[in-house]
Amino acid sequence: FDYFYGTPKYNGATVRVQDTPMRSPIMRNEEVVVKAVQSWDHITADYTREAIEWIGKNKAQPFFLYLAHNLPHIPIGASENFKGKSDYGLYGDAIEEIDWSTGQLLDKLKQLGLDDNTFVVFTSDNGPWVETTPGMKPGGKPFIPRDHSGTADPLRGWKMSAWDGGCRVPFVARWPGKIQGGRVSDGIFSTMDLLPTFAKIANAQLPANRMLDGHDGTRFLTGETETSPRDDYFYYTGCLLTGVRVGQWKLVLPRPANPPGTGWWGRMIEAVKEPTLFDLNTDPGETTNLAAKHPDVVVRLIQRIEKARAELGDIDRTGSGARFFDPGERRLEAGAKKQASTKQPSAAYDDFKPVGNLRFLFESDDMDGWTISEGAFAQPVTTMPSLPRFQDQPFAREGAHHLSTVALADGKSATDSQVGVMQSPAFKLEGDQAAFLVSGGFDKGKLFVALIDADSNEVLIRGGGEHDTRMRRVVWDVAKWKNHRVRFQVVDHKTSGWGHLNVDDFSVQGTLVP
Question: What single DSSP character describes residue 49?
């Protein structure tokens, strides 16, 4: 994004701000405008004012505004104009103020003459956080008061549950002249579908270096077709696949309560003893198991489940389409104290099938034909299993060596002080994909892994780490450069803020050339 206003962190695990010593700041880009928020009563009005001002400043050009209100997440608040005005306590007050906020934005668009040419989406991220006692245990310590959270009725469940009450949310789209007002659909649509839909509407090019999980829903939203581009939806809790919806049918898989691997939110997951089939058209509350009456539907949905397990993964496997592999213990929320580890965990490789005959593994304790074309790296090939400060997070590389721009001091500390460029031998590209492992940082101009034209040195495609320690798998679509003379290149001109790269296991279909 080009502009930011909001909270970089949020005390959203407490009912009241005063329940914790942590106070969130409010920032405008890099500037701290509020050092410590003591009350969320005015945050909705604050965001609304900021959004309206931003729209006014950008009215003469195409713009994209993402307004994600902190409320109605706890801690709840409402301004003086709304507090105590609804019939549903403080939560209702917060909802009414968000309704007012939406109206203010629409009024601004109309005032500027932009409303007929602006596509507006109003939706939510998940169902209500209904946790009156921790884990909803009977007789437990009171947690979230009922007037501080909503309800998913008539749907079953709540936030963090695998029932529709946790995942199914309202979706309203407004585009005068393009979307007919008052039209209602029960078709399946996902937040994942918004990116390709926005890209289509804006005539923007989608990234070619990754496969998106979303579908372009433009024709569905405008009513050109009654059929959504998405006919299924997979229910995951953490990494655990719990069910699938295809059309009107939803299949829920057996599971224990609080299943292993579901982390912090597993406490909200109830046990399911047997495969359970619901017809959501007639039973949106998921009350009646129809599995025995429709075994053919169960078989059909199980086939979808197996396809998802293979491609997306499950608690016991990594999917073929995964772009990140984390073999370690899941830490969904850091504890108050970090226990010192005396044992170095073993790094786990993702057993990726190479995408071609050329492979650079750096296992001969040399650079595997790579060269340093700029700068200097004291130890470009390393056996270091992890960053010294993150010994509990091994690289998950292939083998015992990898290529690194990290500078080591006596093996005890690592810095980002080294800068330079390393590159592979030139090769004729003969395949459609290129793959590699990478961790560390990313900066489009200073820190990246690239495929370059070996003759002109033009960067054809680039990527990098995600400020991460464990390597993740990157697979590029490189078909458009087939038959070109190319190289892999690792560029590090950054000396701070994750200013390093660790790379390994490059594979591609090609032939080495002079």
Answer: H
DSSP state of 174: E
**Would you give the distance in Å from CA 287 to the centre of its chain?**
31
CA-CA distance, 183 to 68, in Å (whole number)? 25
Q: Which two tokens stand for residue 210?
A: 């990754």
Residue in this structure with the two tokens 């990140």, named with its chain if needed = 324
Closest CA to 453 of 473, 433, 483: 483
At 96-127, the pLDDT tens digits run 999 999 999 999 999 999 999 999 999 999 99
Task: Assign domain 232-316 to its CATH architecture.
Answer: 2-Layer Sandwich (3.30)
Phi-psi label, residue 217: left if phi above 0, alpha if psi -120 to 50, beta otherwise: alpha
* Terminal-residue alpha carbon distance, the chain: 42
Classify 276 as helix, strand or coil: strand
Amino acid identity at 461: I
CA 466, CA 440: separation in Å to the nearest integer?
A: 6
Q: What pLDDT, in 10s, does the model give residues 312-346?
A: 999 888 888 776 544 444 433 333 333 333 333 34
- The residue among 480, 414, 473 whose CA lies nearest residue 439 is 473
Q: How far apart are CA 290 and CA 294, in angstroms?
A: 6
Global pTM value: 0.64
The DSSP call for residue 314 is: E
User: Are β-strands 171-174 and 120-123 bridged in parallel, bridged antiparallel, or unpaired?
Assistant: antiparallel
Start-end ranges of CATH 3.30.1120.10 in the chain? 232-316
**Per this entry, what is the length of the chain?**
514
Cα 178 to Cα 122, 223, 337, 487, distances in angstroms: 16, 8, 54, 46
Topology annotation, domain 5-221: Alkaline Phosphatase, subunit A (3.40.720)
Residue span(s) of the chain under CATH 3.40.720.10 come to 5-221
> pLDDT-derived band of residue 482, with 50, 70 and 90 as boundaries?
very high
Strand partners, 507: 359, 435
The number of beta carbons lying within 10 Å of the beta carbon of residue 13 is 13
Whether omega before 8 lies within 30 degrees of 0, making that bond cis, reads no
Residue among 309, 249, 243, 236 at smallest CA distance from 279: 249
Instruction: Name the region of 136 (left: φ>0; alpha: ψ -120 to 50; beta: rest).
Output: left
User: Domain 358-512 has what CATH class?
Assistant: mainly beta
Q: What is the pLDDT of residues 213-228, one digit of tens each?
A: 999 999 999 999 999 9
